[in-house]
Specification:
Blueprint lengths: L2 E6 L3 E7 L5 H5 L4 E11 L6 E9 L5 E3 L10 E9 L2 E9 L16 E11 L7 E10 L3 E6 L11 E4 L1 H6 L1 H7 L3 E3 L10
């Protein structure tokens, strides 16, 4: 049965169908490209949506992907996450197993995509462009530039600038900064960052 998909790239969004049974994650993991059939293309340059036929998106160029809900784990703790991937800012919740400690975890994330739920997507620096929302979204973890969360997520998003918030930032700032060179604790609300 085909899967409806929204494929977010740096240049625009292709919406259409993926002709493959199973979950969207199954269609993405281990593939080199995503074929979106009968796609509508919404370019980010403001020129308007148009019919694009079949669009093939290389997985390395796919920043975000929205499919049908149903990928979320049943027993999970959910953490607020804000991240930037290309031109998009995404706010949502990321699942972890109960008791998960990113600093001590032996199991590292596998696969290219990380799931978020209750996500809101906007264009960075373009508040007038509006906001899209979805129940679940898959994020290409290798395309993320910045992450703000209450967990140290350097292993989940390699190369991203990590801002740790909440008690983790204050209680474990020194160990976090020593372990991951691209991590900085986020300033407390209302307090300007140190220069």
């Amino acid at each position: 049965m085909p899967i409806r998909v929204e494929a977010y790239t740096a240049d625009g969004i292709a919406t259409g169908m993926v002709d493959r049974a199973g979950s969207l994650r199954d269609s993405l993991e281990g593939s080199s490209e995503l074929a979106v059939l009968g796609a509508q293309w919404l370019p980010l340059d403001g020129s308007g949506e148009r019919s694009a036929g079949d669009v093939v998106v290389p997985i390395d160029d796919l920043l975000l992907a929205v499919g049908e809900a149903g990928e979320a784990p049943v027993h999970a703790q959910w953490h607020d996450v804000e991240l930037d991937a290309g031109p998009y800012r995404l706010r949502g919740e990321m699942p972890t197993l109960p008791g998960f400690d990113p600093g001590r975890a032996l199991a590292r994330p596998t696969g290219e995509f990380v799931l978020l739920r209750d996500a809101r997507i906007e264009l960075i620096g373009q508040p007038d462009a509006g906001e899209a929302s979805c129940l679940e979204i898959l994020v290409n973890r290798y395309t993320v530039d910045r992450v703000r969360a209450d967990l140290m997520l350097g292993f989940f998003f390699p190369g991203a600038h990590i801002e740790v918030t909440g008690h983790v930032a204050s209680d474990h700032a020194d160990s976090v900064l020593a372990a991951v060179p691209n991590a900085t604790p986020a300033p407390e609300p209302g307090v300007p960052p140190a220069s």
